[in-house]
Amino acid sequence: MATQTENRYYATGRRKNATARVWVLPGSGTVKVNKVAPRDYFKRDTSEMLLLQPLKITGLKDKMDVVATVRGGGLSGQAGAVRHGIARALQVYDETLRGALKKAGMLTRDPREKERKKPGRARARKRFQFSKR
User: Fold this and answer.
1) Tell me: the pLDDT tens digits for 9-64?
2) How far apart are CA 25 and CA 88, in angstroms?
3) In the chain, what is the straight-line distance between the N-terminal and C-terminal CA atoms, in Å?
4) What is the 3-state secondary structure (H, E, C) of the chain?
5) CB 64, CB 7: distance < 8 Å
6) Cα angle at 82 between 44 and 89, to 5 degrees?
7) What is the average pLDDT value for the chain, to the nearest integer?
């Protein structure tokens, strides 16, 4: 769901079991994830780089503020969910950005999920140790 209220643009992003609620508004380029800077929240440069990709592709990195609340899943999934939410919110902000975001694959929800555990196995594909005797 993506909507516009006054000067804020809202969208929901999802990845694995993480869900992010993202608000994008014109500003100086500050990004907050759960009221904290992304570097402090994710603690990995790759996660921060991942969630800023939509802003870099559209050239709005220093022009838009991002406020995101994210829950569920792990840090990698949460970073992907915030990225998906930012991309969808930017599309609401300016429909002409859709082409660049779509080409980069930012608007498509990543469908990969954890494979279920199978009976007689340690995990989805891992087997128990084989003993000949």
Assistant:
1) 999 999 999 999 999 999 999 999 999 999 999 999 999 999 999 999 999 999 99
2) 13
3) 58
4) CEEEECCEEEEEEEECCEEEEEEEEECCCCEEECCECHHHHHCCHHHHHHHHHHHHHHCCCCCEEEEEEEECCCHHHHHHHHHHHHHHHHHHHCHHHHHHHHHCCCCCCCCCCCCCCCCCCCCCCCCCCCCCC
5) no
6) 145
7) 93
pLDDT for residue 4: 75
Which is nearest to 21 in space by CA: 91, 64, 85? Answer: 85
Tokens of 64: 């838009």
Which residues touch 83 (CB under 8 Å, ≥6 apart)? 13, 15, 50, 51, 53, 54, 106
pTM for this entry: 0.89
Give the tokens for residue 67. 């406020």
pLDDT tier for residue 118 given thresholds of 50, 70 and 90: very high
Q: How far apart are CA 24 and CA 101, in angstroms?
A: 15
Residue among 127, 51, 131, 117 nearest 89 (CA): 51
Q: Read off the tokens for 96.
A: 């002409």
Place of tokens 């904290």: 36
